[in-house]
Every structure is written in structure tokens, then in C-alpha cells.
Write a structure and sequence with these properties.
The structure holds two protein chains of two kinds.
Chain A (H helix, E strand, L loop, with lengths): L7 E4 L3 H11 L3 E4 L5 H6 L7 E4 L9 E4 L2 E5 L4 H6 L1 H6 L1 H8 L4 H6 L2 H7 L5 H8 L3 E6 L2 E6 H4 E3 L2 E2 L6 E8 L4 E8 L9 E10 L2 E10 L9 H7 L6 H13 L11 H30 L1
Parallel strand pairs in A: 1-3, 2-3
Antiparallel strand pairs in A: 4-5, 5-10, 6-7, 6-10, 8-9, 11-12, 12-13
Helix pairs in contact in A: 10-11, 11-12
Chain B lengths: L25 H5 L15 E7 L5 E7 L1 H4 L4 E6 H7 L3 E3 L5 E3 L5 E2 L5 E7 L2 H8 L3 E6 L28 E8 L1 H10 L2 E12 L8 E6 L6 E5 L4 H12 L6 E4 L15 H13 L3 E4 L2 H7 L3 E12 L5 E11 L28 E9 L16 H19 L3 H8 L8 E2 L5 E2 L4 H12 L1 H13 L3 E10 L11 E2 L2 E2 L2 E7 L5 E5 L8 H13 L6 E4 L17 H28 L6 E4 L2 E4 L2 E7 H8 L13 E7 L8 E10 L6 E11 L6 H20 L31 E4 L17 H18 L10 H10 L7
Parallel strand pairs in B: 1-14, 12-13, 16-17, 24-25, 31-32
Antiparallel strand pairs in B: 1-7, 2-6, 2-8, 3-7, 4-5, 9-17, 10-15, 11-12, 11-14, 15-16, 18-19, 20-30, 21-22, 23-24, 23-29, 26-27, 27-28, 30-31
Helix pairs in contact in B: 9-17, 13-14, 14-15, 16-17
The chains are: A alpha+beta, B alpha+beta.
Keywords (chain A): FAD, Flavoprotein, Oxidoreductase
Organism (chain A): Streptomyces fructofermentans
Pfam families (chain A): CO_deh_flav_C, FAD_binding_5
């Protein structure tokens, strides 16, 4: 059995207490929620925090609420809750697409959206999903809350905008009329990290694409919002020619590397292929929701 | 040669003898009450952990253990130097090589054992490992076997006197000249280079041991994850100079072996040394990464095959050159005479005029071991080679792979069949087996569907494999491991009340021995299986034998169990004669009782006979009381299970993703003892095959760093990657085995990988691509018509 080095353990009873503990212990402290990334890293002794601050009792962070024109998802919301949420499925089918292929049921029972985003693994699915949805992250610290875009939140592999003494408390996703979204992922086996994945979200306004968001996973940094593809799509009428071009641009605007999951050129190919597929499905879903809303 | 039908047994019917029954061992497993090595806790037990090399190849400049020794919970720190003082720094391998227990001069693969810490608990042992300061001088590593024999290649084994290269052995089988002759006159010759990549058995339970040396009476008790407790005991006696009668090796419940637990690992030896040094029991249990990175791998065979045929598709000859990567120490487990295992059964199931193979073994800076993993001593590689070559030939000729196989399969009247590399196949009706598989699959309809799909640009593939195994090693005159002959003992005792205990020399790791062997005895004696206790895995409790691997339990030990039961039955006849006051020759046996010929009402059950055998009944002169017997079974030949497998896949042309849609497996393992256990074994082996074909590989970077040290990187298939298996069988009993059984443990692992690979290549229209056929590699093969060998 792999065992971690020794560490202290604190169980926070409120967000304020968690923040106080984080402030007190500084850089040596890590928040643990689902623990499915942190604990294996500790067992492999790749991570060695001196203090773990357990936030699993903070039910105030476990919620999915529709507030005005946005969905507010607490950072402690489990993958399973997202997958079972009817409103998430209705407004953001991309989330259900992704959740179905994130790890396996035992992991989804424990793992949280906040943990996924804060781990900031370059192959992580929800970062690409939230990027495509133009979600915003609410970060709380002693000084209060600040709200940042996903592009600002995700600062690189394993790096986020969450500073020492701060924590991610909520994710806010805009609910837009006529929206459609989809997520496509290739993995070597069920539950594997993505070889590559693409998320697309958009709305249809009078037959033209608007609010386009395209986020890719596992194909290098800076792909959570592919501006070049989004610009191409916004204002365009959906067509196979557009999908082809979007795929081509996505493929050209990512920076995958060869590893045991696949070669660089294959991942670049997938970036295009999966963007096309996700786009196609997102448009079809948007057309359906437009029809339903009308 | 006849194919016999299995008698239908209703599932709810409890057989006395052969038939479908639930496993006797499962009540404890499904309740979580199995007792594995890691469940063993002895009073005062300490915990060991191994410090491993971060480099594939490096000279050890110095090792400073002072900080680890100063740790308050540490009781001992052992290094190669400590062991050298005891004469234990190196140990012999199962292939007559030597292997470092703890490195002294240099490290030769990433993950090699460098030091061993014994501490009060597992956490402290792990912490203390990080306090050991080792200074290394990194050296260039030999990673790819294809470069191992280059003149400039670094020498891995400079510890061996006079060694100036990485060559281990050359070995050949068959007739090179005769093969050359048939190749010269063949209409068609097809060549193909292929790699069977390095894979890992990856049992759920990793390897480990609890060593307890009693400082008073000098007795060593070793609980360990071993598939061969008796062989291990003898080797410990030979290596460590401990008297064999003072060593007890116990193999408790084992969570999967697949060959991974055949060898002796440095950790076991370290646990023993730890116990000797501290006077307390020491547990060492490796973690998942250690298991994947340092214990016996399998395969790593670089093969260049050639097949020669007539224009009509009659196969004339096959030849192959193999470069075998044995890692840093040659510790493969196989019969001494055969350094390439049974690879020379690569002529497969076909009537071939001539064949030849030449195998060269080399050292590399990779983990040692090899041969393990449900491969029947390299039959896996052999079957993969011939079944790929046949498909390459079909591709060249534009022939249907099923028709080409049918044309060349051995015919029933050719058995017993002497193949061209020295094997005598015992029995089989191959065409009937293949025909059955084709019928179940609906082969013609599948080809029709494939044609229609191709016209629409959809990729669907149908892959076949017909395999012949050679298992049940083996006849003593041909087969030994380190001089220990491969015969197996068995002891049977019937208690006064008619219950029985049978003691085996083989050890189950999940195969269901406690049920299968009870059924074998039940079939012979008519005692219900639930009344028969099967004892195994403890050298103090069982007769000598070489253990469970290479599908040898039923062919060898199963035969021993039947023979010993027949001895008891013969003795029961004499006792029944005394009871009934008739001559034993006047009695006839029906299952469970001896009766007077022509007067079946005058009868004694085996239970009545058992009681009489222990009672006051006067026995004939020279007949001892009680009802028991022992035997040692020396197999006259190996057994040859076979099967026909058909795999259907769909490939996504945009992503290269493979979906295994169907898998039809028709197996023939001779007499079927418990069909439910057979099916379980086949299910597992087929999943193994899908895993190897599509996702499994122990990969390395150019510096020799292992890239597959966790289940995030070493992928095992799950229920989501495999279809609902479609199983059937034929039955051609082995003529030389007492009950006609051939063994089934590895058939599916051996036979399935080429069926999956052939299906994928059939779908994408590419002649060859090496495993694992991950989406990336399939896409590259689709894109370019080929893909480079994996590393």
C-alpha cells in the first residue's frame, strides 16, 4: 500500500473557519474535498502538505441554484449531483456529456467541481466545459469575494488564481436563451483522462451562432477559450463548411505534446475532429431549445 | 478421434463428480473473509519497505543510511553491503543467472532494489526510506532490445566475469535447411516484423511476504505470495543455506498470480534477512507502482516471421527470428532446456511441411523476469506470431482468413501429430471447432454486413484466431526448473466417517482448486465434493510439487488427484471384499460403492468401507488398515487444449477508437470438470486479451524511465471495454491424461489477442500494426498505412 508522509488534519465547520485555517497555515496547507487527485499524489509522495483542511462539512458550498440568469454551483457540489441535476441537464447538456465520462461512479460520488477546477490538471474535463460555457469563478478570501473568468482562473497546469488564504466557493454559469452545448472526448478506456476533448457552447439567434465558447482539454495550455474559433463562429450560419473550418482552426490553435496517450499530430487531429463533432451536436441542441422556447 | 458431448446438468443439481457447481471457496471471498498475506499479523511484527533506484542504469557511488538509522521507529537498515556480508547480495534466478537482491555495484533498471528499511510501522518504514542518501553516477541505458547488441551499447551485466556485451543466449528449433527448401519452392512468401510488447500480469494483490525466523528453534516460517511454495522452499534452502526441514512456506489466499508470483523477488529475501537481524517477524508488501515497475513482466518479443505457401494457399513453411528482451537479469521461469519457453510451438494448428525458429535473448536496462502472465511459457507469443502471419498471407493472397485456416488446419486423423519442431499434439478435431465458431458468429452474414458498411465508409472488422496450446509441464525427463523435475505429488485420506482430505502440491490463486480437485476426487470415489477438504499452499501440509503456472494444475496435479483416488478405490475394493466375504475380483464399481457382480443389492458404500477400514474388520494378509494413498504423477506428455476465436470490432474512422462488439470463443480443454469454472477462466482470459490488444503496455522513455507505474498509465480493461462473451466448446479428451482433461487456465489469454488485432486490422485495411491498438495508434495506421513499434 502506498502511504503518505505524516500531516495534520483540520476539519472546517464553516467557510470562514476554513479561510482562517488557510491563512494560519499558509502555503503548507491544502484543502481536501473529494480527495481523488490530492490523496493519490500524497500517497505517491508527489504532494506533501503539512496540513489538510477538510471542507466536506461545508454544506453551504454544496448547492445548484438558478439565480436570475445564471446557474450557481457551489464548489463542494459532487460530480454525481451535477449529473443528476435536471436543471444542469436542461441548460447545459455539455456538463452531462462530460460528467458521464469523468472517471467512474465511485470517483464521481466523492469528487467535486471545485476540486476539479482547482486541481487544474491540463487534461481535466470540467475546466474545458466551464471555459466553453464562459463560466466565472467566485474566489473568497479574508478581504471578501472576487469573481474571475475561467480564462483568468486557470493560469496554467496545476495553477489557478486562488491565492494563499483563499478558496474557490462557487462557479457561475450564464443561462442564455436558445443555447446548445456538447462535449466530445476520446479516452483509451472508460475513466481514463482525455487523450483530447472538446467542449462547445453557443446560442442560435435568428439562425446565426452567438455567444460561442470552445474549450479543449489535454491539448496544451490556453485552450479553455479558443478565441479564434469563437470569433469564426459568432455571427455565422451553421453549416458543414463552418464546422470544417472551425475544426481546422481549433486544430491549428492548440499545442498538444506526444505522450503515452497519443502523438502530437493525433491529438491535433482530434482537436479538430472533436470540435467539429461537438459543434454539430451543440447546434442541433440549440435548434431544439430554440424551438422549445418558441 | 471423437468429439463427445458434455452431459447436460441442471444448474441446481449438485454433482457428485464433474459438473456445474458453485465454488466451495467463494463463501469466504464474497464475505470479504479471505486471508491474504497482508491480512497476516504476527505478534511483534515489524514492517519493511524497499528503497528503489530512480535510474535505469547508474553506478552507486555511496549510500548513507545514518539518518534513516536515527529514525526513532527504525529497527534495521539493510543495504547490498549488509547482504554481501551474509553472502546474500546476489541470488540465483530461475534461469541459472544471478540477480542482485540489493544493488551493490550499480543499478540496472529503474525500480531496482537498493536498500531495505525495517521499522515499527509501514508509515515509518516509508518515511525512513526518504532519509537514505544514495549518490549515483548515471550511465547510458540500453532500452530498446534492437540496440542491445550494437558494439557501442553499454554493457548491462559487467558483474558477470568476462562479459563484454548484452547477449544471453541463442536457441533454435526446427530444421533450417528443410525450411529453406520449402521456402525456395513456394509460390508466395510473406514476411512481417512485429513486436509483442512488454505487458504485466498486474494481479489485484501485489507481491509480499511475512517472514518469521524463530531465534530459539531456528525455524523460518514464510507467508508469501507464491504460486509455487515447495519450489520456493527448496530454493531458499539452496540460496540461504537454511536447512529445508526448518523452512515452512505458506501461500495463503492469493489474489491473482498469472505468473507474477512464480519467481522469488528480492523483497522476500529482504523480509527474511530483516527477521533474522531483528529477531521479530517482518512484513513486506509492495505497492502497486512497485509491482508494475519491478516484478515479472511478460512478452517483450521482437519477432520477424516469414510464411511460405502455394498460390492456392497451402501453407508450406514458417520461420521466425526473435529478439527476446529479458531485462537486466535473466530471471524468466521456464523449463531449463527451453530458454525461449515453448515458443517453438509457433507452427500452431496447421499442417506445415517445415519450420524453424531462432531466438536470441538479450539484457536491457529494464525490469527482469519475463514469461509470466498467463502465457503457457511463451505459447502466447507463438500463437500471436502464427495467427498474424496467417492473416498476412490471407491479405497477400486476397483469401478469406477463415477459408485459409480451414484449408490448412490439422485433420482429426493426423493425431497424435508430430509437429516440425518436436511437439506431439495429443488430440483434436480442429475443423469441427472452427466450424462451430463460424456458425455461432454467423460468419457469412458478418462479411455481408462488413461489405455494406464499407460501402458507406464505416469500418467494421472480423478477426479470427485458431490456437493450439501446450500445457501441463511436464515429463520429468524433459522438464525441470533449476533441476527440480516437474512432477506433482498428491495425498488422499478418507476419514472413518467417509469424509476426505486431499492434499495438493499446487496452489490456487483464484482458479478454484478447492472445488475442482474435490470434484475430481468425487468423480472417482463418489464422495460428494462438499465432503472433501482440499488442502494446498502450505509446505508443512502438502506433498512436494512445482506449483501452479503454465496451466499445469489440472493436467499434472489433477491427474495426480485422479490417480490417488483410484488407488484408494482399489484399496476400498479389497476392504469391501473382506466385508462381504467375496473375492475383490467379484466386485464391480458404480460411483460411490462396490457391489457383487450380478447382485447389486449386495453392496458397500465408500463411506461404509471407510468406517470398516478404521474398525476391527479382519483384513486380508498384507493389507494395512485405514483408507488412504499417495502418488507422484509424472506426465507422459503435455496436453494440447485448442480453440477457435472470432472477434468483431467497429472502428471510428475519425478518432481511431475501437469498440469490441462481439467475441465468440469455442474452446476445447478435453474433459470438462466444472463448466462454470472453465467459463470464468475463459472470461478472464478474453478480457486479458482485449486489454493486451488494445491498451496494455509497460512503456519506457529513451532514458529507461518506466512510463507505466500506475493503473492510470497501465490500463486494464473493465466490463465497459468488453462485450458479452459468446462461449461454446467441443470436447476431445486427452488420451494420455487419466481423466482426459487438458487445462484451460491460459487458453483465452493465449488465443484472444491475435483475434482482436486481426479484427482491427481487417477493419482498417492495414496489413500489420503492433499492439497496443490505442486510438492514437489506430488512427496513425489508418492515416499512413503503418505505425511504428511502441516503446
Amino acid at each position: 500500500m502506498q502511504v503518505p508522509a505524516s500531516f495534520d488534519y483540520e476539519r472546517a465547520r464553516s467557510v470562514d473557519e476554513a479561510l482562517e485555517l488557510l491563512r494560519r497555515h499558509g502555503e503548507e496547507a491544502r484543502v481536501v474535498a473529494g480527495g481523488h487527485s490530492l490523496l493519490p499524489m500524497m500517497k505517491l509522495r508527489l504532494a506533501g502538505p503539512e496540513v489538510l483542511i477538510d471542507i466536506n462539512d461545508l454544506t453551504e458550498l454544496d448547492h445548484i441554484d438558478l439565480v436570475g440568469d445564471e446557474l450557481r454551483v457551489g464548489a463542494l457540489t459532487r460530480h454525481r449531483a451535477l449529473l443528476e441535476s435536471e436543471s444542469v441537464g436542461r441548460y447545459f447538456p455539455i456538463v452531462h456529456d462530460a460528467e458521464r465520462v469523468i472517471a467512474d461512479p465511485p470517483v464521481r460520488n466523492r469528487g467535486t467541481i471545485g476540486g476539479s477546477l482547482c486541481q487544474a490538471d491540463p487534461s481535466e474535463d470540467l475546466s474545458a466545459v466551464c471555459g466553453a460555457l464562459h463560466a466565472r469563478a467566485v474566489i473568497r478570501g479574508a478581504e471578501g469575494e472576487r469573481v474571475v473568468s475561467m480564462a483568468d482562473f486557470h493560469q496554467g497546469p496545476y495553477e489557478t488564481a486562488v491565492g494563499v488564504g483563499e478558496m474557490l466557493v462557487e462557479v457561475r454559469i450564464p443561462v442564455l436563451p436558445g443555447a446548445g452545448s456538447a462535449y466530445e472526448k476520446v479516452e483509451r478506456k472508460a475513466g481514463d483522462w482525455a487523450v483530447a476533448a472538446a467542449g462547445v457552447a453557443l446560442t442560435l439567434r435568428e439562425g446565426r451562432i452567438a455567444d460561442a465558447g470552445v474549450g479543449l482539454a489535454a491539448v496544451g495550455a490556453g485552450a479553455l477559450n479558443l478565441h479564434a474559433v469563437q470569433t469564426l463562429m459568432n455571427g455565422s450560419e451553421p453549416s458543414e463548411a463552418l464546422y470544417e473550418e472551425a475544426g481546422r482552426v481549433a486544430s491549428a490553435n492548440c499545442s498538444p505534446v506526444t505522450d503515452s496517450r497519443g502523438s502530437e499530430d493525433y491529438k491535433r487531429h482530434l482537436a479538430g475532429e472533436l470540435t467539429r463533432r461537438a459543434l454539430r451536436r451543440a447546434v442541433a441542441r440549440a435548434a431544439r431549445s430554440t424551438a422549445r422556447e418558441a | 478421434m471423437t468429439t463427445v458431448d458434455e452431459p447436460a446438468v441442471a444448474p441446481e443439481e449438485r454433482p457428485i463428480g464433474f459438473g456445474r457447481m458453485k465454488r466451495k471457496e467463494d463463501p469466504r471471498f464474497v464475505r470479504g473473509k479471505g486471508r491474504y498475506v497482508d491480512d497476516i499479523k504476527l505478534p511483534g511484527m515489524l514492517h519493511g519497505a524497499v528503497l528503489r533506484s530512480p535510474f535505469a542504469h547508474a553506478r552507486i557511488v555511496s549510500i548513507d543510511t545514518s539518518a534513516a538509522e536515527a529514525h526513532p521507529k527504525v529497527r534495521a537498515v539493510v543495504t547490498g553491503e549488509t547482504l554481501a556480508g551474509l553472502g546474500l547480495a546476489w541470488m540465483p534466478t530461475l534461469s541459472m543467472d544471478t540477480q542482485a537482491v540489493l544493488a551493490t555495484d550499480k543499478v540496472r533498471f529503474q525500480g531496482q532494489e537498493v536498500a531495505f528499511v525495517v521499522a515499527e510501522d509501514h508509515y515509518a518504514a516509508r518515511d525512513a526510506i526518504e532519509l537514505i542518501d544514495v549518490e549515483y553516477e548515471p550511465l547510458d541505458a540500453v532500452v530498446n532490445a534492437r540496440h542491445a547488441l550494437a558494439p557501442e551499447a553499454p554493457v548491462v551485466r559487467d558483474d558477470l566475469e568476462g562479459r563484454t556485451d548484452n547477449h544471453i543466449f541463442d536457441w533454435e528449433a526446427g530444421d533450417a535447411d528443410a525450411t529453406e527448401e520449402v521456402f525456395a519452392r513456394a509460390d508466395v512468401v510473406v514476411g512481417q516484423t512485429m513486436l509483442y510488447p512488454r505487458v504485466h500480469p498486474a494481479p489485484l494483490e501485489t507481491c509480499g511476504a511475512v517472514a518469521s525466523m524463530d531465534p530459539v528453534d531456528g525455524r523460518l516460517t514464510l507467508y508469501s505470495t507464491t504460486q509455487a511454495p515447495h519450489a520456493h522452499r527448496t530454493l531458499y534452502a539452496m540460496v540461504a543455506g537454511l536447512p529445508e526441514h526448518k523452512i515452512r512456506v505458506v501461500s495463503p489466499d492469493i489474489g491473482g498470480g498469472f505468473g507474477n508470483k512464480v519467481g522469488i523477488y528480492p523483497g522476500y529475501v529482504c523480509a527474511i534477512v530483516g527477521s533474522i537481524l531483528t529477531g521479530r517477524p517482518v512484513k513486506w508488501m509492495e505497492d502497486r507502482s512497485e509491482n508494475l515497475m519491478s516484478t515479472s513482466f511478460a512478452r517483450d518479443y521482437h519477432m520477424t516471421g516469414e510464411i511460405a505457401a502455394t498460390r492456392e494457399g497451402r501453407i508450406l513453411g514458417v520461420r521466425v527470428k526473435v529478439l527476446a528482451d529479458h531485462g537486466a537479469f535473466n530471471s524468466t521461469a521456464q523449463p531449463t532446456k527451453y530458454p525461449a519457453g515453448f515458443f517453438h510451438i509457433f507452427t500452431g494448428s496447421y499442417d506445415i511441411e517445415a519450420a524453424h525458429c531462432a531466438v536470441t535473448g538479450v539484457y536491457t536496462n529494464k525490469a527482469p523476469g519475463g514469461v509470466a502472465y498467463a502465457c503457457s511459457f511463451r505459447v502466447t507469443e507463438a500463437v500471436y506470431l502464427i495467427e498474424r502471419m496467417v492473416d498476412c498471407l490471407a491479405d497477400e493472397l486476397g483469401a478469406d482468413p477463415a477459408e485459409l485456416r480451414m484449408l490448412n488446419l490439422l485433420r482429426p486423423e493426423q493425431f497424435p501429430y508430430e509437429n516440425k519442431t518436436g511437439w506431439t499434439y495429443d488430440s483434436g478435431d480442429y475443423p469441427a471447432c472452427l466450424r462451430k465458431a463460424l456458425d455461432i458468429a454467423g460468419y457469412e452474414e458478418l462479411r455481408q454486413e462488413q461489405r455494406e458498411k464499407r460501402a458507406r465508409g464505416e469500418l467494421m472488422g472480423i478477426g479470427l484466431s485458431f490456437f493450439t496450446e501446450t500445457v501441463g509441464a511436464g515429463p520429468r525427463k524433459h522438464m525441470d526448473i533449476l533441476g527440480l523435475g516437474m512432477a506433482d505429488g498428491c495425498e488422499l485420506r478418507v476419514h472413518p466417517t467417509g469424509k476426505a482430505v486431499v492434499r495438493l502440491s499446487v496452489q490456487t490463486q483464484g482458479q478454484g482448486h478447492e472445488t475442482t480437485f474435490a470434484q475430481i476426487v468425487a468423480e472417482e470415489l463418489g464422495i460428494p465434493p462438499e465432503d472433501i477438504d482440499v488442502v494446498h499452499g502450505d509446505t508443512d501440509q502438502t506433498p512436494f510439487g512445482l506449483g501452479t503456472y503454465g496451466s499445469r494444475s489440472t493436467p499434472v496435479s489433477g491427474a495426480a488427484a485422479a490417480v490417488v483416488a483410484r488407488k484408494v478405490r482399489d484399496k476400498a475394493r479389497i476392504i469391501a471384499g473382506a466385508m462381504l466375504e467375496v473375492a475383490p475380483d467379484d466386485l464391480e464399481w458404480t460411483k460411490g460403492r462396490w457391489s457383487v457382480k450380478g447382485d447389486p443389492a449386495v453392496t458397500r458404500t465408500i463411506q461404509e468401507i471407510a468406517l470398516a477400514a478404521h474398525g476391527s474388520l479382519e483384513l486380508p494378509d498384507g493389507v494395512e488398515g485405514h483408507l488412504e494413498a499417495t502418488t507422484v504423477y509424472n506426465p507422459p506428455n503435455l496436453t494440447y487444449p485448442f480453440g477457435a476465436y472470432i472477434c468483431v470490432v467497429d472502428v471510428d474512422p475519425g478518432t481511431g477508437t475501437v469498440k469490441v462488439r462481439r467475441f465468440v470463443a469455442v474452446d476445447d480443454c478435453g474433459t470438462r470438470i466444472n463448466p462454470m469454472i472453465i467459463e470464468g477462466q475463459v472470461h478472464g482470459g478474453l478480457a486479458d486479451g482485449v486489454g493486451m490488444a488494445l491498451m496494455e503496455i509497460i512503456g519506457f522513455d529513451e532514458d529507461g524511465n518506466c512510463l507505466s507505474g500506475s493503473f492510470m498509465d497501465y490500463l486494464l480493461p473493465t466490463a465497459l471495454e468488453v462485450p458479452a462473451w459468446e462461449l461454446d466448446h467441443t470436447v476431445t479428451p486427452s488420451p494420455h491424461h487419466p481423466i482426459g482433461a487438458k487445462g484451460i487456465g491460459e487458453s483465452a489469454t493465449v488465443g484472444s489477442p491475435p483475434a482482436v488485432v486481426n479484427a482491427v486490422l481487417d477493419a482498417i485495411g492495414v496489413r500489420h500494426a503492433d499492439m497496443p491498438l490505442t486510438p492514437s495508434r489506430v488512427w496513425q495506421a489508418l492515416d499512413r498505412g503503418e505505425v511504428e513499434a511502441p516503446q
